[in-house]
Write a structure and sequence with these properties.
Blueprint: H1 16-35, E1 39-40, E2 46-48, H2 49-56, H3 61-66, E3 68-71, E4 77-80, H4 85-94, E5 103-112, E6 124-133, H5 139-155, E7 161-166, H6 170-186, H7 193-201, H8 215-219, H9 230-245, E8 251-252, E9 264-271, E10 280-286, H10 290-293, E11 301-307, H11 308-317, E12 329-333, H12 336-352, E13 358-360, H13 367-377, E14 381-385, H14 387-392, E15 394-399, E16 407-410, H15 411-421
Helix pairs in contact: 1-5, 5-9
The structure holds adenosine-5'-triphosphate (ATP) and magnesium ion (MG).
């Protein structure tokens, strides 16, 4: 049998059996973000290509080789967003939200990167993105880290660790950059092809290389921490103090640099060793220069983004108790009179039992065939109605799991009895 048109490689359907997990996670995230006063912003999935080039940086992996860029019918170059920060900053500027204002914002949705698809790495993937604009920190740096830590705690996650670093200001980084280039030039013959290319364009990214042959060389490189400007060093130590006091464990990773150009000072990553090579679950940092660079008023800012697919995979690997989203009850109706009465009964049950998940058998069939469907639906109980039940204004309640007995219940009592049978809204 032909499978029809295939989806685009690296882009996944989120099927009914999975979507309940996404909704569950999103509901928890919404609640936690609300508890910190963050408000949702929804921005377009496509932006002008120039926005990403100017924000993420021309010589980053994302802009060099991962963007989905097209000319639209008017000949303008547009790009499917590879990340959310640039669009949120653009929206903040175009809507005048950053003049003497502070914004705590979040957003969620699909992002697009033309990467090699593998477990935990897709071409369409989803992020939850949190941004605090207008705050110089380090208090707000701590806040968004505490917020993420609260999420892991709420989800009962284990094996997720925080790594922190400070990149200093662009000025102090420029000095360090020269030192680093000098060091790698001295060891040029040991560099791989990628790193040689980066040596001119983006030498800090060499520190992020995953090539095992380079690890020794990288370990010997000068440390950014030794060349931080005084204010950045103070900012970092104040952040650490707040985190220490709040009982947040972390390790300082002096080689943590991030893949986007716009970061300054605080950068961090929540990593796990339980997802193979795709271990970064949530990453972020401060980007004090970006708003101005994009034409807005000078506005300090910080944010993080978490990969929803990776977080769900981690929850699944730790047997997270996702709530069921199967129907709780299934209505079996045989004959025209029973269908007519059943459809109305089902409506009144949904009126009376908030959160009830009731599936009605549509499409007819014998009692036997319908009961089979009821069983396959995953419901706890079948509500059975035939011609005879209609005449007597009753239904039969038949437990589908365990060994309870079938009972007859009047229409008037049905909502009450069904409510006792299943927990309305349970797990929903
Ligand atoms: P990586 O080092 O794994 O490529 P990154 O540094 O490119 O990650 P960010 O740009 O910081 O990632 O994006 C934030 C989060 O989004 C990551 O921590 C990760 O969880 C998730 N993520 C990034 N790229 C992908 C992808 N292609 N597929 C699935 N999730 C992704
Ligand atoms: Mg990447």
């Amino acid at each position: 049998m032909s499978k029809g048109i295939q989806p685009i490689r690296g882009m996944n359907d989120i099927l009914p059996g999975q979507s309940g997990r996404w909704q569950h996670l999103e509901a928890i995230v919404r609640e936690i973000l609300g508890a910190y006063g963050y408000q949702e912003i929804r921005v377009p999935v496509v932006e002008r290509t120039e926005l990403f080039k100017r924000s993420i940086g021309e010589v980053t992996d994302i802009v060099e080789k991962e963007m989905y860029t097209f000319d639209d019918r008017g000949g303008e170059s547009i790009t499917l967003r590879p990340e959310a920060t640039a669009g949120i900053v653009r929206a903040g500027i175009s809507n005048g939200m950053l003049y003497n204002q502070r914004q705590r914002l979040w957003c969620t949705g699909p992002m697009f990167r033309y990467e090699r698809p593998q477990k935990g790495r897709y071409r369409q993937f989803h992020q939850i993105d949190v941004e605090a604009l207008g705050f110089p920190g380090p208090d707000v740096d701590a806040e968004i880290i505490l917020l993420s830590a609260r999420l892991w705690k709420r989800l009962g996650l284990k094996h997720i660790k925080l790594e922190l670093n400070s990149l200093g200001t662009p000025e102090s980084r420029a000095v360090y950059r020269e030192l680093l280039v000098g060091y790698f030039r001295e060891h040029y013959e040991q560099l791989d092809e990628d790193s040689r290319r980066r040596l001119e364009s983006n030498p800090l990214r060499i520190l992020d290389s995953k090539n095992p042959d380079l690890q020794g060389l990288i370990a010997g490189a000068p440390l950014l921490a030794d060349h931080l400007d005084e204010e950045s060093a103070q900012h970092f130590s104040r952040l650490r103090k707040i985190l220490d006091n709040a009982g947040i464990e972390y390790s300082v990773n002096p080689r943590l640099v991030r893949g986007l150009d716009y970061y300054s000072r605080t950068v961090f990553e929540w990593v796990t060793d339980q997802l193979g090579a795709q271990g970064a679950v949530c990453s972020g940092g401060r980007y004090d220069g970006l708003v101005e660079q994009l034409g807005g008023p000078a506005t300090p800012a910080i944010g993080w983004a978490l990969g929803v697919e990776r977080l769900l995979a981690l929850m699944e690997s730790q047997d997270y108790p996702f709530p069921a989203d199967l129907p709780q009850a299934y209505m079996v109706m045989a004959g025209e009179a029973a269908e007519t009465a059943g459809m109305r009964l089902a409506e009144s049950l949904r009126d009376e039992l908030e959160g009830l998940r009731l599936e009605v058998n549509c499409g007819g069939g014998s009692f036997k065939a319908q009961l089979k469907k009821a069983d396959r639906s995953g419901a706890e109980v079948a509500v059975i109605i035939g011609e005879n039940e209609v005449e007597r204004q009753v239904v039969a309640l038949k437990p589908l799991r365990g060994d309870g007995e079938q009972q007859e219940v009047t229409w008037a009592d049905l909502a009450g009895r069904l409510g006792g049978f299943i927990e309305p809204g349970a797990g929903g």
